[in-house]
């Protein structure tokens, strides 16, 4: 797998804490809950990508793992991931798949798990709950796994970034997961269910256009 492919599904910002790498929904261990016999070892690929990018801060917008529980094998996956990036500061805005994650991260002092994270007026959260009562200028979230289907001779679904007002929704960084059509996926975000339209961008940054939701 080309590590540079992961750059398209993430975002790098300069913040008061230094260069900050933002990503959403890795869903590590997805093979375990989907009955797949082949192990992709995406946890190792993702940690190698973080090492290559070498940011001062990593923000993961929830659903670091896929299985809702924490089996012995899932613990091993997470330990391999965190061990490789032990020297990095990591903030995880806890998602609906991240139950018991603290049982693993307590051994890694650089990892912080929060419901939401506010930095320089920017709000980072997973997106499965209502908004916290804080003021912010822009919000970044995941949860939706947004994608858009281009229709032609053959339909093709592509992961996209989605802008709705002051919110930017990230696609899943996991290249093995396809994504969910934004027109149905947006209903999964309580504070965006009433949105009427959205601006879509390809991972490379190309503007696709506005779609009705």
Strand-residue fraction? 25-35%
In one word, what is the shape?
globular
Q: Mean of residue pLDDT?
A: 95
State the end-to-end distance.
Answer: 33 Å
Q: Can you count the helices?
A: 6
Structural class, from helix and strand content? alpha/beta
Q: What would you note in describing this structure?
A:
The structure is a single chain. This protein is an alpha/beta fold and 213 residues long. Helices cover 20% and strands 31% of the residues. The mean pLDDT is 95. The strands form 3 sheets. A 7-stranded mixed sheet has the order 6-7-8-12-11-14-15, with no helix packed on it. The protein has helices at residues 3-8, 30-33, 42-53, 72-84, 102-105, 182-185, and strands spanning 11-15, 18-23, 57-60, 89-93, 111-114, 116-119, 122-125, 138-141, 146-150, 156-159, 161-164, 167-169, 180-181, 197-201, 207-212.
Topology diagram in text:
Layout: H1 3-8, E1 11-15, E2 18-23, H2 30-33, H3 42-53, E3 57-60, H4 72-84, E4 89-93, H5 102-105, E5 111-114, E6 116-119, E7 122-125, E8 138-141, E9 146-150, E10 156-159, E11 161-164, E12 167-169, E13 180-181, H6 182-185, E14 197-201, E15 207-212
Parallel strand pairs: 2-3, 3-4, 4-5, 7-8, 8-12, 9-13
Antiparallel strand pairs: 1-2, 6-7, 9-10, 11-12, 11-14, 14-15
Helix pairs in contact: 3-4
Task: Spell out the key features of this protein.
single chain; 213 residues; alpha/beta; 7-stranded mixed β-sheet
Summarize the structure.
By secondary structure, the protein is of the alpha/beta class.
């Amino acid at each position: 797998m080309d590590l540079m492919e992961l750059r398209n599904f993430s975002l790098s910002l300069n913040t008061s804490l230094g260069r900050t790498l933002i990503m959403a929904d890795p869903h590590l261990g997805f093979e375990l809950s989907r009955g797949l016999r082949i192990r992709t070892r995406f946890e190792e690929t993702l940690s190698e990508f973080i090492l290559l990018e070498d940011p001062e801060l990593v923000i993961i917008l929830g659903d670091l793992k896929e299985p809702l529980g924490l089996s012995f094998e899932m613990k091993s996956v997470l330990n391999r991931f965190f061990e490789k990036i032990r020297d990095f500061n990591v903030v995880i805005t806890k998602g609906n798949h991240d139950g018991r994650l603290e049982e693993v991260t307590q051994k890694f002092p650089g990892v912080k798990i929060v419901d939401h994270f506010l930095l320089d007026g920017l709000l980072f959260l997973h997106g499965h709950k209502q908004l916290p009562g804080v003021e912010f200028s822009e919000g970044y979230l995941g949860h939706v796994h947004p994608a858009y289907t281009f229709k032609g001779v053959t339909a093709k679904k592509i992961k996209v970034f989605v802008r709705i007002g002051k919110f930017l929704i990230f696609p899943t960084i996991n290249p093995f997961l396809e994504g969910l059509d934004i027109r149905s996926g947006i209903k999964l975000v309580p504070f965006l269910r009433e949105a009427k339209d959205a601006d879509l961008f390809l991972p490379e940054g190309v503007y696709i256009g506005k779609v009705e939701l």
